[in-house]
Amino acid sequence: MSKSSPPEGQNLAFLRGLTQPRLSRSDFMRGAAASFAAMALSGTGPADAATVTNWKAWWEAQKPTKEFIFANWPLYIDVTSNGKDHPSIDTFTKQTGISVTYDEVIQDDPSFYAKVAPVLKSGQPTGYDMMVITDGWYLTELLLQKFLVPLWREKVPNFNKYAGASVKNPSYDPGNKHTMVWQSGLTGIGYNPKLTKREITSLDDLWDPAFAGHIGMFSDTNEIGSFGMLKLGINPTTSTPADWTKAAAVLQDQKDKKLVRQYYDQSYINALQNGDIWITMAWSGDIYQANSKGYKDLKFVVPKEGCSIWHDNMCIPVGAKNPLSALAWMNYYYTPDVAGIIEDYVNYICPVPGAKDYILNVIKDPDVANSPLVFPPQSSFAKTHEFRAFKSYAEYQTWVNTFSPIVES
Amino acid sequence: MRRLSRNLAPYLLSLPSWVYLAVFFVIPLGSMLGLALATGDPLDGYVMSDNFSEFSLAFSQYHAEFLRSFIYGAISTIITLIIAFPVAYWIAFYGGRNKSTYLFLLVLPFFVTFVIRVLAWEFILSDQGFVLGTLKNLGLIPQTAHILSTQWAVIGGLVYNSLAYYVLPLYVALEKIDRRVVQAANDLYATPAIAFTRVIIPLSAPGIFAGFLLVFVTNVGDFVNAFILGGPGTYMIGNVIQDSFFDNQNYPLAAALSSMLMFLLMIAIFLYAKAFGTDTIQDYAA
Amino acid sequence: MSTTMIMPIMRRPKMEIGRRLLAAYTGLVIIYTMIPIAVMIVFSFNIAPNGRVALKWLGFTLAAYRHAFGIQDLTGALINSLIIGVGSAVISIILGTPLALALTRYNYRAKTTTDIVIFADIAAPAVVVGASLLSLFLELNIPRGLITILISHVAFNVAFAVVVIRARMTGLDRSLDRAAADLGATPWVAFWSVTMPLILPGIVGAGLLGFAMSIDDLIITNFVAGQTLTFPLWVYGATKIGTPPQVFVLSTLIFAGGVGLAVINSLINRRADRRRQG
User: Fold this and answer.
1) Domain ranges in chain B?
2) For a surface tag, which of A234, B229, C29, C237 has the fewest beta carbons within 10 Å of its beta carbon?
């Protein structure tokens, strides 16, 4: 193998070089072996997603269609008790004549991104008109690569009318240019008062030696890093790499003192329900679900230092075949009754505060309507912080390299 | 004519698999592993170069995880072999007409996806659950004892999940042993133990080796058990690869780690084969 | 297999005890593998408030069984998984058996390379395999779906099939098929009449293994599935919001179906035995 580093500053040199005759045979062999993986995993695909420059003209050229393909997480929409029907979708079809293909194909953000990004990079359509992505690096990455269609806001008047303050103008997508929130959730503290033997109010409790070996933390670096900063009184949304280092030190200390039992993904909720952990980082919706299925002792608290808020966002991938249907769906969703119907089943945090009255008065389900976990009071929202939105891959790498050694060991 | 076809026979027999594996395994995998030498990032793209720094980084930063993975893999493989051998032996020699039924029963838990199996194990093994709760109430173990979030839970999970994968090849190898040979051995040697070690074990060696391939190799690269059942200090190399691919999106690092893992496993396989004094790896018992 | 093997051995009383112990032990191991399944079955009859299963006893109900196939996506995913499981097991046997035969019986030039590829196939981390296959399908412009999942599962199952079948072939007595050849049988006839019956247990083992590997795979499948869902994919995704009782119910039904097959099979065998003796 001869030394053949391409000239600097020519990122695509390698692929373009393949078509040029001056390559030696060994170069070519090596190129053939490495070409398509490199292409699929990076931005060097044949079709540049950013070919559309005038999105307004693009939108105006779109024709209404009678189809809509919606990729979402499993069980993230209302379901009738026989498990068969989604009333909100059926009503949408009745009102608009648009037939909906509802695909529950998103298992988590990293793996869904790993699945669709190569498709987008190769310039092929994903097959979806709308997908639901959590704010975080993967959403940022889609935005940075211009893989999301800017929304035609005039077609979604209900958003301005009914959206809650917490979902307007988020830090990761200023002005809601590309995304609208489907559901939100709080990352706070979940605990079992019978085991902690006292009420929990502060992040310091996650560092309390009295609970050593029974404290659960999240393995997601976004989540755990943000908590480290909140503990130090730093606002994660606006934090700097220097803050990250400080936060990592506190988290490392927590680990070194053997306070943490395990760094969990979603399975923390089983450990909390089983009593293996007494106090843990937790998602509001999980604790609500746990309460309603018999684990009545468990409590969720927004610590006095603050907590994280995350948003799962509806967005339109480039190549979508029915973008106008997607806008129609967004507009349909952002009403108190539709959001209410869905919220009554999903139980995370509703982006439409007006849905509370609908659930209370029309659906008559006070348990959901009055739950501070589903409709948090303003005082809770005031203490929430969005995740840090990264500006570049390098910045994200710095974050990951700061926090992953804590989780990995 | 006959001779020609005899010479060609192995190639003709191999050809379909070769083509399939070349197209759907070797070429794509090679293409992916080649990224280990690339420089760049997922947004701006990669350039191929002769950059071996990922390998030294991979080793210097993650040698502990490599070592741990091989230790967990070895321990779990040995335990699995010990549990699985008598089962395979009984099915092979005394299973009668229902041999395949018993094998089928061993595979049946896989029909229930691992997400559910793990959920159930977490429930059974929880600190105050069926097992530990009862033992604690009887005062047999201290109140603070726990299994989940420890390395023993990880190894236990590995053993549980690989049991069927070891029984199957062992059974396949044991079943072909002519019973007259066993009979003769029993008549010949003083004790059943000697008959067993001198006759049964050598004759079942292809099964032991095949099972080792399936179980050791997959367990060393496993990440599910360490992630769900382990605690701080049980991270395996499979988890690091998983993280560097999905979370960090450091594809060159993931490729370098994967290449190294495969290379080290290959060495382990050859060492194993060597220890049993054979040139052609799977055929030494012939 | 061959009739000589039915001849009873080890009549000594000590051996008899050992045999019983061994049988009891095997039973215990089978029970051990089913412990988590038992938990799942019990809780499939549990009341599931809000449509999510709880591993805490709240009361008996058959509600979830009444709507067992209610979640269309889940039922469809299950059917996909079964198709892919059976399909990939069968195809990998068809591909793997001749290769195992070649590797065991012939010394040819590409043997070591083939060995290495087979080991590499087993050793390759799932993420890398999954991502590489997705890149390939994109490059070849093959739409992702059932077919690409099947192709990918065969790609890893072939190696497992070869290893298991080879464990069977290694050391098999070759005098029979040589005799067949001497008697003028074509290699094809000799294979089907002599070799095939001898290696059948290996093929059954490889098939079961392949099916298990396929139906349990999550990582590789996720990459190449496109809009198609398999059972583990759906169930894994559902953990974010909570597992619906149908997951337990469908798993229980599959499990019961499997046990049913096993029981029927052994009853048929028993009857066949009795007829032969009577």
Assistant:
1) 1-51, 57-283
2) C29
CB contact under 8 A, B116 and C251: yes
Share of chain B above pLDDT 70, in %: 94
Of B8 and A100, the structure prediction assigns the larger pLDDT to A100
Residue B83, token pair as written in the block: 């549990």
Q: Name the token pair of C261.
A: 């097959």
Q: Which of C268, C216, C257 is closest to C41 using CA atoms?
A: C257
Q: Is the Cβ–Cβ distance between B18 and C114 less than 8 Å?
A: yes
* End-to-end alpha carbon distance in chain B: 29
Q: Which amino acid is at A203?
A: L
Closest chain C residue to B122, measured at CA: C36
Query: Scanning the structure block, which residue is given the tokens 């028993």?
Result: C270
Q: State pLDDT tens for residues A173-200.
A: 999 999 999 999 999 999 999 999 999 9
Tell whether C1 is within 8 A of chain B (Cβ).
yes
Q: Which of A83, A84, A106 is nearest residue C237 as measured by Cβ atoms? A: A106
Instruction: Return the exposure string of C153-180: e unless at least 16 CB atoms fall within 10 Å of the residue's CB, then b.
Output: bbbbbbbbbbbbbbbbbbbbebebbeeb
**At residue C222, does pLDDT exceed 70?**
yes
Task: Search chain C and give the residue with CA nearest A109.
Answer: C237
Scanning C244-263 for CB atoms below 8 A from B yields: 247-248, 251, 254-255, 258-259, 261-262
- Measured CA to CA, the distance from residue C22 to residue B203 in angstroms comes to 20
Domain that holds residue C222: 72-243
User: What is the CATH topology of the domain spanning B57-283?
Assistant: MetI-like fold (1.10.3720)
- Asked if C34 is an interface residue toward chain B (Cβ–Cβ < 8 A), one would say yes
Q: Residue C241 and residue A75: Cβ atoms within 8 Å? A: yes
Which chains does chain A touch, 3 or more C-beta pairs < 8 A?
B, C
Q: Is the dihedral of CA A310, B226, B126, C239 positive or negative?
A: positive
Asked if A53-184+310-374 and A186-307+389-407 have one fold, the answer is yes
Which amino acid, A275?
Answer: G
A36 touches chain B (CB under 8 A): yes
- Picking from A40, A83, A347, the nearest residue to C244 by CB comes out as A83
Query: Residue for token digits 């002769």?
Result: B50
Residues of B in contact with C135 (CB under 8 A): 28, 31-32
Nearest CA in chain C to B179: C5
The pLDDT score that the predictor gives to residue C16 is: 80
Q: Are C71 and C87 in contact (CB under 8 A)?
A: no
Cβ proximity of A341 and A322 under 8 Å: no
Please give the angle made by the CA atoms of C239, C243 and C247, to the nearest 5 degrees: 120
Q: What is the per-residue pLDDT across C38-79, written as a single tens digit (0 to 9) for each?
A: 999 999 999 988 778 888 899 999 988 988 888 888 899 999
Calculate how close chain C gets to B30, using CA atoms only, in Å: 8
Q: Token pair for residue B142? A: 């201290």
Of the segments A105-119, A222-236, B121-135, which one has the largest average pLDDT value? Answer: A222-236
CATH superfamily of A53-184+310-374: Periplasmic binding protein-like II (3.40.190.10)
Q: Check which CATH number belongs to the domain holding C78 and give it.
A: 1.10.3720.10
Residues of B with CB below 8 A from C99's CB? 13-14, 16-18
Q: What is the bridge-based pairing of β-strands A299-301 and A384-386?
A: unpaired
- Which residues have a Cβ under 8 Å from the Cβ of B187 and sit 6 or more positions away? none
pLDDT at B87 (0 to 100)? 96
Q: Does C229 touch chain B (CB under 8 A)?
A: no
Distance CA B191, CA A150 (A): 80
Cross-chain residue pair B43–A141, CB shorter than 8 Å: yes
Please say whether the beta carbons of A227 and A305 come within 8 A: no
The answer to whether A112 and A105 are in contact (CB under 8 A) is: yes
Q: Using N-to-C axis directions, what is the helix angle for B237-246 and C126-139, rounded to 10°?
A: 40
Quote the minimal CA–CA distance from C16 to chain A in Å: 45
Joined together, the tokens standing for residue B96 give 């009668």
